User: What shape does this take?
Amino acid sequence: MGRVTTLKDVARLAGVHPGTASKALNPRTRKDVSARTVEAVLNAARELGYLPDPIARSLRTKRSNVIGVILPDITNPVFPPAVRGIEDALREAGYTALVGNTDNDPGREEELFRAMQGRRVDGFIIGTARRDHPLLRKAAEDGIQLVQLNRVTDDQAIPAALVDDAGGMRLAVDHCVALGHRRLAHLAGPLDMSTGEHRRQAFLAACERHGDAIEEAVVVNSDAYSVDAGARATEHLLQTAAGCTAILGGNDLIALGAYRVLAERGMAIPKDISVLGFNDMPFVDMFQPPLTTVHVPQYHLGVEAARLLLERLDNPDAPAKRLVLPSRLVVRGSTGPATGRGGRRRSVSPVPRAPKDAHSSV
Amino acid sequence: MGRVTTLKDVARLAGVHPGTASKALNPRTRKDVSARTVEAVLNAARELGYLPDPIARSLRTKRSNVIGVILPDITNPVFPPAVRGIEDALREAGYTALVGNTDNDPGREEELFRAMQGRRVDGFIIGTARRDHPLLRKAAEDGIQLVQLNRVTDDQAIPAALVDDAGGMRLAVDHCVALGHRRLAHLAGPLDMSTGEHRRQAFLAACERHGDAIEEAVVVNSDAYSVDAGARATEHLLQTAAGCTAILGGNDLIALGAYRVLAERGMAIPKDISVLGFNDMPFVDMFQPPLTTVHVPQYHLGVEAARLLLERLDNPDAPAKRLVLPSRLVVRGSTGPATGRGGRRRSVSPVPRAPKDAHSSV
DNA sequence: TTGTATGCGTTATCAA
DNA sequence: TTGATAACGCATACAA
Assistant: This one.
């Protein structure tokens, strides 16, 4: 562990005072120093392979060039690409990402948040926003720099990089209708998250837009974005509204839960029933069958979230922008024409405005 | 951003000197301080919600309670579980993981390594080891604390948490033989990595063990652990040794490359040909068909790597242990009896000791 | 047992 | 323009 060269060493070699060397090294203060000494200091620094100590600098400046990234769980395949996007964009700007997982535990989230603040992170990218999120609200009020990723709070106070959830869901519904499906089910994600609620609303709105072309539009809630929760929701759906010919998962994992239950029941996808996801996670094209899903550009979402944050660090008074990236439908093998079972049945009930409750059939 | 309470505040409230407060707070030096003052200081700290500033502490102690984790690419599905294992184990001990991706670029790796050293990380968990790895060798010589994850250098100087690659490959070969396959192909991972070389050697050794039961054992190199590289290797295999009835991928991604090429050629898995992977990545059970593969307990590998490192930080002179976890075969739908094509052909060539070169057919 | 002083490496303020 | 000095918050060697 050879000795590390410090600012003092550089100053000595350049024959100047450490304070002067500091100014010469820092691009922002370089103008207060003669061209001759700047060069001498720069040469000395290069010769000694000087690297400023980020710890000492942080202690002095209260900044760290580190961004805290708070996610539910890196093990969820949608997040790694987003993390790479964040890291790549931050690195260009000389920042580093420090990633933490909350496992959807608010206590753990607060602990992480505090720990990262203690480490003097300059801002946060938050992938865990709930529609009502006191911790985030308070942090924003306290002037902590935040950008939300993919999910947002209901109030518009915090900037965010998002995808067009409603547009994506509309494409999915349109695709089903074009294939002749008239009885659709949506396995909604958690409604305390913007993605869950927005996609659900968009599902209902899109169905309504099709008027008589749709005979039934069912929403069943999935209490988590997970395969198990998706499986439970699917079982519930099969018991309560067995006539649906297409299942639109709140995300890909929920759709995978549907895959599992349908396989157990011996129902073939897409012959007996079509299934759609949301997110286009890596490798869903390899599934059995390849999953038709709404593509969410996670990597770019990460890049944009990082950029929004950097912009904000540069100019803290900039407005809290919300950047919305387009989504698109990727049609694969899990959707097909509505044949067999309820495909051509006559309408049982018209489509009312909105569901009475989470499990209502509309 | 309300003012943060500092050690000085605690000392003032407790009516002691900051230095004394520091001793009282630090469990290791607490014995040098009277029970009465310890209590006063602890109470004051609790009352003020005091949290020590890790930056200041790091500057002073040259330690950070941060561990650098260096991976090829978090986007590779095998890594997120390992990262979670690392994080969970570190957190219990009051440490934090700082993760970086090299994209297999040695320059980038060195840059990351330096940057993390600058941040005073207390040690590294390395998921990027190559069999010959000067950077690691030098770091170890310099007394930097390292633990390797899943892959190792050829020399035994650096501790590691590993899986029994050879045992796993043997299980895979035995499985194929039990199904009646007599012409096997291995799509070896990069041979400059221990996993690539060890699995390849184990493949050949296992085939040899079966003697006349195996008519042909082919090795084709894949130049990366990726789907594309696996696809290229598969194409090469199909041109040069078309009679094989089972393909053993160097890892799951390589096996997926085989899936792709075989699908393009209209060959059915496992009817026409069996395919096996290595790693048991998340969701390979959902593939088309579900992948038979050697399970590698990535999460536990992460936990054990973290523990090895913590142990070493505690006792830097402890020997450089290598911990080897067992692997096991997970049989799914991509392997089946050897029927059709070359399945029952007679031996063309006996099995020699070892391959002449990377693409040799033995 | 407690207090004092010093320094970790940097930056920022002020004086020369 | 440059140099001197202090301070960021903490830990530790030493003095009291």
Remarks:
- Residues 341-362 of chain B have pLDDT under 50 and may be disordered.
- Residues 16-20, 23, 32-34, 37, 56, 58-62 of chain B lie near DNA strand C (CB under 10 Å from a C1').
